Amino acid sequence: MANIMIRRNDKGYVFYMPKRDIEDSILSMEFDTPEKWGGEIRLGNGGVYFIEPQAAPARLPISVRAKRLDGVE
Amino acid sequence: MAALTREETEALIQEVLEVYPEKARKDRAKHIMVNDVSLESSKKCITSNRKSLPGVMTMRGCAYAGSKGVVWGPIKDMISISHGPIGCGQYARGGRRNYYVGTTGIDSFCEINFTSDFQEKDIVFGGDKKLAKLISEIEMLFPLNKGISIQSECPVGLIGDDIEAVAKKAAVEIGKPVVPVRCEGFRGVSQSLGHHIANDSVRDWILSNRDGQAFEKTPYDVAILGDYNIGGDAWASRILLEEMGLRVVAQWSGDGTLAEMENTPNVKLNLLHCYRSMNYISRHMEEKYGIPWMEYNFFGPTKIAESLRAIAAHFDDHIKEGAERVIAKYTPLMNEVIAKYKPRLQGKKVMLYVGGLRPRHVVGAYEDLGMEVVGTGYEFAHNDDYDRTIKEMGDATLIYDDATGHELDEFVKAMKPDLIGSGIKEKYVFHKMGVPFRQLHSWDYSGPYHGYDGFAIFARDMDLTLNNPCWGLLKAPWSKAAQEEQKLVA
Predict the structure, then answer these.
(1) Above pLDDT 90, what percent of chain A?
(2) Could you tell me the residue ranges of all domains in chain A?
(3) Residues whose CB falls within 8 Å of the CB of residue A71, separated by 6 or more in sequence, listed in order
(4) Complex ipTM
């Protein structure tokens, strides 16, 4: 589990992990509705992380806990 | 143009790496790439932010250098204690030329080395008591200080001193912020982690100090982040922003004060010059206070105009007009500068090897002068820096990460640049090789180089260095005579 920050730029969601200083675009997010948000996210660098599905945050960026499932660290 | 093709550059890299043992060669090969502007991400081509190889000569610094030297040191009304043996603070004192307005020793303290001067007994019995005593002494001798930061050096972490406890106690006693910074030099692979640690300590101990207090806002408040006022850089940037109608609330951290930093959460936009050293705090402010941040580049008229317009785009028409007015005002001046120096510098090749932002930021300034950057590299960048660099550099140029002494020497011998821009550690090596050299860390005791005013100085300095007659006098008279004799014989 690691703390990550999700923000939005003009192209979509951006993933950032402060600890490892990894910044990458989020290609897909499993759930992206106001009620359910999160789940499996896939990054541009091939990484796959999991965020506990939750209500969509009122404001971005937001720091959440995420679990690495696959791909490069 | 004598620039190398892609194949030639690749062959050069192989040739240079040839001397290493196999394991080292494999590792170093990952840190050097030939640029391909079509790439979106640098990850597949270059590895960065990894531990330097033992045995090679690296130019990197340590976490303490990143925290004390870069982020905390320039805050003028705070006292940064170098907590540990005396050398770290003394040999880094004043080296970065962070200019400030103030009376040193009365209300400003950047130039003074405050240290706990660890001795053997402090290592054996711990240095906490000494630190507490030091803080109360500082408070007595320099009552106008606004706060104290404790910059740990290696031994403090090794012996496990509890500087946080001392800091908390002292803060209550003196009624000012006392910030413990765990930036021991052995942490991380380079100064980069020191920046991160320093940002985190600002976040934890400084940033929220004035939350909820009244602050007279305007819709045009901005903060300059990651400008360390080297040779007056931040001032040259600040006047442009003020001229276009913005109000600069804070400078982080060149010529900056503690109050400015505490007021930063009230701004409308954070302007980030050195992305590498201050992106952490920008991201935090974006999340906590909803302040957007943007990177800008104030090197060279082309990039300045681009940046001013990009900054103005965050505000209303009043600021947009202001940006156009500023650009229009300075364009004739800049055209004069370019007309004067471009003929003298046109077509010259430059190689760079600097720290966090300049390997990509100054490319535009050189291009404005008709020069070409043939190779660039960072001491301590991460991959997001290289992602940004790929777009700035020409195709098939050389990019190197954490270059070693050997690699730099060989690249310079093969590529024969007309000018090298790097730091003090490289300077005299290249001077002895007879290559014109400018320090791009401290501007070689000149500056500012930011902003329109800075560009005029930048152009003059590059001309002074490159076209200096001394480069023709480097050969000893006898070796010259021998050469000429040989020529005559032939």
Answers:
(1) 51
(2) 2-68
(3) A43, A45, A46, A47, A48
(4) 0.90
